[in-house]
User: What shape does this take?
Amino acid sequence: MRTHMCGEPRPADIGTTVTVCGWVARRREHGEHLAFVDLRDHTGLLQCVVDGSVDVRSEYVLAVTGVVSQRPEGTVNDRLGTGQVELTDCEVEILSAAEPPPFPLDERAAEVDETIRLRHRYLDLRRAEMQSNLRSRARISSAIRSAMDAQGFVEVETPMLIASTPEGARDFVVPSRLHPGEFYALPQSPQLFKQLCMVGGVDRYYQIARCMRDEDLRADRQFEFSQLDLEMSFASQSDVLEAVSRAVGAAVEAVTGEGVGEIPHMTWHDAMNRFGSDKPDVRFGMELEDLSEVFAETGFNAFKADAVKGICHKGASEATSRNRLDDLTEKAKRWGAKGLVWMRAEEGPDGEVTLNSPVAKFLSPEELAGVIETLGVEVGDVCYLVADRWHRVCHVLGLLRLELGRPPVHEGGLRFLWVLDFPLFEDVDEATGRPVPAHHPFTMPHPEDTDMLSGGPTELLGVRSQAYDLVLNGWELGSGSVRIHRPELQQQIFDLLGISEAEAEAKFGFLLEAFRYGAPPHAGFAFGLDRLVALLVGEDNIREVIAYPKTQSGGDPLTSAPSPVDAEHLAELGLRLLPRGT
RNA sequence: GGUCCCGUGGUGCAGUUUGGAGUGCACGCUGGCCUGUCAAGCCAGAGGUCGCGGGUUCAAAUCCCGUCGGGACCGCCA
Assistant: This one.
């Protein structure tokens, strides 16, 4: 039907007759003897010169046969790939007429209400930006598959209809027709199946897996998402990091043409301590500095705490109003801080740095000098101090750091980071005294810390795990761990967590049974493809890299999902609806 | 479950603070003019449940209450 794509004709093609197909991006009429029609497909635009009798409107679908011709002098368009040439002597066939589109299908669509774009997603997808995003995503998937294949991984599909387990995220549930009253769950991840693959001798498993979690949506979270999921037998943590690094490197190279290089490592403790986050955005500094020493002997009650830390916002004083400071203080409180101390750095009578703050009068000259020295404060800076338990101080200042300094999504390059040595336990439940697992209960403790498993709460919270996260520009891309494969250690962990033998048997019995038949040591990882694609193409919202995403309330404006089903259908499944609001 | 923001011709906005006739801008659309434009230009025109419901008022896009839809975030996402 066509000989060329719209974006292809070049000066070398001048004189040849071609046929192109596409949509009318724009028409410019100059009376009965001359009109220009820009024909669009995913490769670009081609200007077709026709006479005024050709009645085509925006988004008509055409096949145009014409001669590739040099544009007259002075009419070359440098902004088009085909801008040196145009199609003349055109024969235009209308393949489909079209109603005017409900929103402009060019750059201006970025300003259009997203609901309208989603309601007509097929039109939105025609736009160059969406085409580019979809194609980048496909290139990334393809590059990842090649990289995994090259490393000896085997792609295995795992079931979508599985047994529901109470752990982790809320399951999407599917009623069973053949077993009324019983339900499948859609997978939150293929976690247990991939471990079974290791027992099954697959050795190296991977899958670009669809996962479903019935939790509230965000800019970086949809109900349904895709993960590169992988698992390796006879492999250590460093083997997994290496394998994932290669896949990510291949993905990045597929989009940017450049390699990633060695991805730096950081311990979880360093990440929290320096950046106040387990997914630090290291595109910018403004690190948290420890002021506990400075205020060790302080008379200021608010600073008599486990930890005092601060950050310094360079040169921000002039742009930071008192209203803004009050607003930040409110935010810090919402984030869990008791309060936020701010200090403006001003020039003193002798040219020295002095700190202006509502609390300055409660602090000694030595303490103020300590703040200036530790934070490297100069005239014109604003610093922020928080005192509390270490973890809370880090958390609040980490969020404040992002609020004040985080660059836009497309700036600052791609800063990958491995965060290692996560704690095995997130917390110790005060009521039960049981530790709460930070990852999942199959996570292998750090070999140096296994003795501490028999200790008290303080020891337990200090136990590191062989769990690791991959972070890019402050987004958690994914996480993984070395798994426990020996029943004795698994039993010890279950005991610690307060999971009874019966409970473990009921929830993970098939996995524990499988492990009794000879389980290889294994480790794995999973990272979110949607987030990786979004960051690689410079979008701060994963909906922009998903063909048919859902809105924040989980609806699809295009198909009107979710929707009711009729009573017969429900009856067949053994279901009856409760009245609304119960 | 919670906090905050948004909703005005097909699209994007202004108008809302301080109530006074659906007033305005840009794009798009329809028709006309136009032989080198490229977000073409010029002229004319059509197009409105101011998200929806209720309340206050002589009078509501504007104030109040509720509700629906969208977005950002907290909780949640082992």
Notes: The CA atoms of residues 93 and 452 of chain A lie 77 Å apart. Residues 128-150 of chain A form the longest helix (23 residues). Chain A has 14 helices and 22 strands.
